[in-house]
Design goal:
By secondary structure, this protein is of the alpha/beta class. It has 2 domains: 184 residues, Glycogen Phosphorylase B (Rossmann fold), CATH 3.40.50.2000; 126 residues, Glycogen Phosphorylase B (Rossmann fold, 3-Layer(aba) Sandwich), CATH 3.40.50.2000. 36% of the residues lie in helices and 19% in strands. It has a 7-stranded parallel beta sheet, sandwiched between helices. Strand 13 and strand 14 form a beta hairpin. Helix 5 crosses helix 9. The protein is globular.
């Protein structure tokens, strides 16, 4: 029996992000794993759409009249539009980030949880209220919850009292372009992070400078090949985040053979627990006014880099298989 599966990619804007990367990598693989099903992917009109190489016999792209901006307003509009879409042409499954959950009595909703930042003081008071009062209801109504890491899945289960059987862990991975980078002389440090509070990018800059190292700050949209070369030129990668769902820059750096100094948070501990080697976990940085201090990182930078003998073992194929299995188990 052919299933009609709608994939909501409208939250993804034109800027590079881990969430957009995950969606694209999963969609490159999922249609082949479920060849008898049809995937209809919705993109926001201002989100730059699907990559040109994202195509398959059973994959259809649609640009919808909704903005990738807007937060709660986008979420509400998507719920309304998807409900209308189901009335006109019913679909059996919906893959969505954060929600909305649509017609749960007839549609098998699978919600991806990238992180739970709004429960930790990041994202403003509106997101905090949404996270505490609305998000749990959405997850409990969903047929399945997909965590991007073991720690995200465990926190979602605990915070929202979800049944274990409905929570699946489909970890993020690293593209192959980060795994075949020519070697060379290494120097300085690199940090790959947007300038937002939870990323604590300033802590990496201050730590590198205090240790007497040049720091390469990457926050723009350079392509994977260029980013891999920048990782491969660095002696260290710094990951000062206060909160992450999955440590994508940590995985990318390790895949390029670059050791990482990372904060001791659940997402980074997940990588170590999975067997990644080359990570030095240190306490969180501190901020005084606008000034960051990360003394543990400074001390580590002054020591010898560890050997990067094993990057994280997960692949995008692994994640796609978990999601395909969740779709198959959720019925039609």
């Amino acid at each position: 029996m052919t299933r009609m599966i709608v994939v909501d990619c409208t939250p993804h804007g034109p800027e590079p992000s881990g969430a957009r990367r995950r969606a694209v990598e999963i969609l490159k693989r999922l249609p082949a794993l479920l060849p008898d099903d049809v995937f209809e992917v919705h993109w926001a009109h201002d989100g730059c759409g699907a990559p040109s190489d994202l195509s398959a016999r059973n994959l259809v792209h649609a640009t919808v009249d909704v903005s990738c901006r807007g937060g709660a307003r986008r979420w509400w509009r998507r719920g309304r539009d998807l409900t209308r879409r189901h009335r006109v042409a019913a679909f059996t499954h919906l893959l969505t980030d954060h929600g909305p959950v649509v017609v749960p009595e007839r549609v098998q909703n699978l919600v991806t949880v990238h992180d739970l930042r709004f429960l930790h003081g990041f994202g403003g008071w509106t997101r905090a209220l949404y996270g505490r009062w609305c998000y749990g209801r959405a997850l409990r109504r969903a047929a399945g919850v997909l965590g991007v890491s073991a720690s995200v899945g465990a926190e979602a289960r605990q915070r929202y009292r979800l049944d274990d059987a409905r929570v699946h862990v489909a970890p993020n991975a690293v593209d192959a372009s980060f795994q075949s980078v020519p070697g060379g002389e290494r120097s300085g440090a690199i940090v790959v992070a947007r300038d937002e509070p939870r990323k604590a990018r300033g802590a990496a800059v201050s730590a590198a400078r205090e240790a007497g190292l040049e720091i390469d700050v990457v926050d723009d949209g350079c392509d994977d090949a260029a980013l891999a070369r920048r990782y491969a030129r660095a002696q260290w990668a710094l990951a000062p985040s206060l909160l992450e769902g999955y440590g994508m820059p940590v995985s990318e750096a390790l895949a390029c053979g670059t050791p990482v100094i990372a904060t001791d948070i659940p997402a980074h501990r997940d990588l170590v627990a999975a067997g990644a080697q080359g990570i030095v976990l240190v306490p969180l940085p501190l901020q005084t006014g606008d000034v960051w201090h990360w003394p543990a990182a400074v001390e580590a930078l002054r020591g010898p880099p560890p050997d990067v003998s094993a990057p994280p073992p997960w692949t995008w194929e692994d994640a796609a298989r978990v999601i395909a299995d969740a779709i198959a188990r959720s019925g039609s």
